């Protein structure tokens, strides 16, 4: 075990920025240290000639100096959230950006604008923004600030300022190309471990997600049958004299069990299912992050190779290489710090979620 | 119940064995034989135990005994046998008659049947019943010699045949109505209970999957590993606990099933009474018409239409001698009829009296038994919840240590 690098330890060779060190504990300290509070609520549907879409109200309260005001209220639609996410990914390719709820739900037969769907999405968007706010680096991102504060027209014009679609596509093409070429070479062991961990984690979390859904479904079927069960006892009591009271008693107990079952199901769908789903998405995101890190490393490696082949023009190259090395190092550090943070959060989330499930079940049985 | 057999004798159906033999059509078949053990209960002095007598019987012999009792004591609500084939099963139980769980439950049911008969004040004194318990060989012949099959009214076999009774006894009609309701409500209950059991089984068993995944997941986690692993163990315990819980519930289902079948026995008594009443009314009707015929012949007036009367009008009257002879026959018949009617009436009154005595006894027994069954069902549910609380408290502790 001594050969394994402890993911949570601080190895002295990797410089860690002081802010990420303090921020590692920040989350556990709770809301007292927070200076940015965001809520997402009040979904409203808008119908135009071309399309129908939903906007959500985003309310921000802050004490930070760099914000002009202490309170903001804006309306945003899903597209805007997508934009924010992609800007964050661009700016911080090796940081772990929180997941957004999916565009469509393939599995469920949920209509795009059903109340259930909208509510689930709203909660997920709320989580998304809050996770960004809690992130030591992302929280100071400029685009994030604009997202929270700009009026609708301001946001549109700001969006158009970004790098054009073509240049973004070029980036992607280069990224894909370099990732195919030996990105696994020279990968520090720590990241290989992360990859291995992630593979297993992703598999398990997907399984847990499926299991939790299955349990919910079975409970629902159980509930449906129970609903029919109680009234039979009541019906029977009508034909009896001596035992009528006992029968009615049982009928009412069964009804109470039904209600308890309903609450248990609600607990599942409110707490466990969304978190598991979030982490399923997270595992995909993490894979992406690791890939991007590999890409950056790949760029460095290929330049180093090129240098080895072209002894001339060394100076030019070495400057570039220097820059790339810096880039790789920064990327690696960022990722590592973020990874640690993510794991802490995940642990905390899982702990509280499952404890919650256990408590729910306790309540159910006590009823 | 002071003199009933159950107090004097310990009766158990202690074993079940698979046998093969040749049946009535000389075809090889497999069946199960049950061992009946009896032992006299006397004030036992130290160290002295009466010897155990035993013999083997198969289900068809139990059926024969019950048929005999139903026919011989039509006014008694005869205890029912456990079901012939497994019914109201939920998916885990098989519907196979040879399945060991089914055989075991049937063994218990047969023992229960014998105990019920032995504790019945009237039935326990029956000699055929006693012979069933004590005499292995020649019992079947003994039963057939009683000729009870002749007494069995084939009309009762047609379950839904209706007899239009002019003056139905209200009490019996109500009772029949009640037995129908009881049958329908209990069978509905058993069906839904089986479905509920099925679903509950599903919920518990899927939690078992948690156990496996947690354990695999704990392998890659450093800090969460222990918590996950032990929580997984508790999930396995939870999933496994449902098997015992549902088996206990089967017992409750069996208790309800007994009364489902009892309801049928109750209904049978009502039907027999109906039949009796019908026969009585038919006999009375027959007597009245014969008396009328006699009168007509004697006085020569035709008050009612009769084919004979018409034909005699068309083809000429009969001679006075012929008429005298007819009148004499009719008078004899009328006398017979009157006697029969008298005895039928007596029979009927006796039947009603003894039937109601037994019905009262049955009602008390039913209320007592069902109440106990409901209470034990509630106790079962409580214990299930207690187990659940224990498991989830442990799991919660494990989770909080993650």
TrEMBL record, chain A:
PROSITE patterns: PX. Keywords: Coiled coil, Protein transport, Transport. Belongs to the sorting nexin family. GO terms for molecular function: phosphatidylinositol binding. This is SNX7 protein. InterPro entries: AH/BAR_dom_sf, PX_dom, PX_dom_sf, PX_SNX7. SMART domains: PX (SM00312). Residues 307-334 form a coiled coil. The keyword Protein transport applies. Pfam families: PX. One of its GO terms (biological process) is endocytic recycling. Residues 34-155 form the PX domain. GO terms for cellular component: early endosome; phagophore assembly site. It comes from the Eukaryota. It comes from Aegithalos caudatus (Long-tailed tit).
UniProtKB/TrEMBL annotation, chain B:
InterPro entries: AH/BAR_dom_sf, PX_dom, PX_dom_sf, PX_SNX4, SNX4, SNX4_BAR. One of its GO terms (biological process) is positive regulation of autophagosome assembly. GO terms for molecular function: phosphatidylinositol-3-phosphate binding. Residues 12-140 form the PX domain. Keywords: Protein transport, Transport. It comes from the Eukaryota. The keyword Transport applies. GO terms for cellular component: early endosome membrane; plasma membrane; SNARE complex. PROSITE patterns: PX. Gene3D superfamilies: Arfaptin homology (AH) domain/BAR domain (1.20.1270.60), Phox-like domain (3.30.1520.10). Belongs to the sorting nexin family. This is SNX4 protein. It comes from Aegithalos caudatus (Long-tailed tit).
């Amino acid at each position: 075990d001594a050969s394994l690098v402890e993911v949570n330890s601080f190895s002295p060779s990797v410089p860690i920025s002081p802010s990420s060190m303090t921020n590692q504990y920040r989350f556990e300290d709770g809301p007292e240290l927070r200076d940015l509070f965001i809520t997402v609520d009040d979904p409203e549907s808008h119908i135009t000639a071309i399309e129908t879409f939903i906007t959500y109200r985003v309310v921000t309260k802050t004490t930070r100096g760099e914000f002009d005001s202490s309170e903001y209220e804006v309306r945003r639609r899903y597209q805007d959230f997508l934009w924010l996410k992609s800007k964050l990914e661009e700016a911080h390719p090796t940081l772990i950006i929180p997941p957004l709820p999916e565009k469509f739900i393939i599995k469920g037969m949920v209509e795009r604008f059903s109340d259930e769907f909208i509510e689930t999405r709203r909660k997920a968007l709320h989580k998304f923004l809050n996770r960004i706010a809690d992130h030591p680096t992302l929280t100071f991102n400029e685009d994030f600030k604009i997202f929270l504060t700009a009026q609708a027209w301001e946001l549109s014009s700001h969006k158009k300022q970004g790098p054009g679609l073509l240049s973004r596509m070029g980036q992607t093409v280069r990224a894909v190309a370099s990732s195919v070429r030996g990105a696994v070479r020279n990968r520090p062991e720590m990241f290989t471990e992360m990859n291995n961990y992630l593979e297993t984690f992703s598999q398990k979390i997907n399984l847990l997600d499926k299991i939790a859904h299955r349990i919910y479904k079975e409970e629902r079927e159980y509930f449906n049958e129970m609903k029919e069960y109680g009234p039979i006892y009541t019906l029977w009591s009508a034909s009896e004299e001596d035992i009528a009271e006992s029968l009615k008693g049982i009928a009412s107990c069964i009804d109470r069990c039904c209600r308890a079952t309903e609450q248990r199901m609600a607990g599942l769908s409110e707490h466990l299912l969304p978190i598991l789903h979030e982490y399923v998405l997270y595992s995909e995101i993490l894979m992406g992050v690791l890939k991007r890190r590999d890409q950056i490393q790949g760029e460095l490696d290929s330049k180093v190779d090129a240098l080895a082949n072209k002894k001339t023009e060394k100076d030019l190259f070495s400057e570039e290489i220097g820059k790339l090395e810096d880039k790789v190092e920064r990327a690696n550090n960022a990722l590592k710090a973020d990874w640690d943070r993510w794991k802490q959060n995940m642990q905390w989330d899982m702990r509280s979620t499952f404890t919650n499930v256990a408590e729910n079940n306790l309540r159910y049985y006590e009823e | 119940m002071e003199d009933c057999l159950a107090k004097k004798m310990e009766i158990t159906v202690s074993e079940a064995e698979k046998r093969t033999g040749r049946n009535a059509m000389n075809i090889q078949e497999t069946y199960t034989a049950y061992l009946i053990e009896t032992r006299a209960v006397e004030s036992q002095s130290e160290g002295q135990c009466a010897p155990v007598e035993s013999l083997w019987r198969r289900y068809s012999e139990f059926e024969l005994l019950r048929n005999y009792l139903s026919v011989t004591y039509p006014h008694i609500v005869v205890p029912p046998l456990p079901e012939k084939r497994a019914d109201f099963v939920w998916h885990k139980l098989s519907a196979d008659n040879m399945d060991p769980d089914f055989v075991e439950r049937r063994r218990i049911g047969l023992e229960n049947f014998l105990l019920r008969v032995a504790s019945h004040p009237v039935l326990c004194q029956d000699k055929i019943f006693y012979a069933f318990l004590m005499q292995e060989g020649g019992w079947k012949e003994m039963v057939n010699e009683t000729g009870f099959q002749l007494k069995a009214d084939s009309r009762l076999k047609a379950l839904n045949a209706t007899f239009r009774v002019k003056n139905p006894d209200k009490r019996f009609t109500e009772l029949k109505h009640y037995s129908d309701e009881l049958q329908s409500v209990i069978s509905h209950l058993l069906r839904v209970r089986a479905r509920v059991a099925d679903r509950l089984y599903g919920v518990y068993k899927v939690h078992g999957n948690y156990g496996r995944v947690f354990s695999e997941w704990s392998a890659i986690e450093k800090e969460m590993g222990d918590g996950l692993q032990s929580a997984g163990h508790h999930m396995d315990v939870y999933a496994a606990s449902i098997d015992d819980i549902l088996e206990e519930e089967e017992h409750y289902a069996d208790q309800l099933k007994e009364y489902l079948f009892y309801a049928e026995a109750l209904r049978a008594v009502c039907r027999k009474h109906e039949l009796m009443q019908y026969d009585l009314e038919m006999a009375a009707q027959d007597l009245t018409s014969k008396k009328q015929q006699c009168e007509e012949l004697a006085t020569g007036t035709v008050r009612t239409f009769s084919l004979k009367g018409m034909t005699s009008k068309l083809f000429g009257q009969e001679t006075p001698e012929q008429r005298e002879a007819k009148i004499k026959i009719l008078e004899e018949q009328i006398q017979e009829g009157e006697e029969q009617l008298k005895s039928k009436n007596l029979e009927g009154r006796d039947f009603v009296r003894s039937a109601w005595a037994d019905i009262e006894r049955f009602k008390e027994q039913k209320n007592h038994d069902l109440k106990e069954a409901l209470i034990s069902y509630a106790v079962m549910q409580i214990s299930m919840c207690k187990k659940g609380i224990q498991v989830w408290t442990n799991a919660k502790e494990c989770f909080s240590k993650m």
